[in-house]
Write a structure and sequence with these properties.
90% helix, 0% strand
């Protein structure tokens, strides 16, 4: 795995986690 691939994977994971957090906050309101 090269550095750009790793960086892209981390960015994708971060994006997914952010969306999940957003959904959870919306459900709690």
């Amino acid at each position: 795995m090269t550095d750009p691939d790793l960086k892209n994977a981390i960015l994708r994971l971060t994006d997914i986690l952010a969306k999940q957090q957003e959904t959870l906050e919306r459900l709690q309101n």
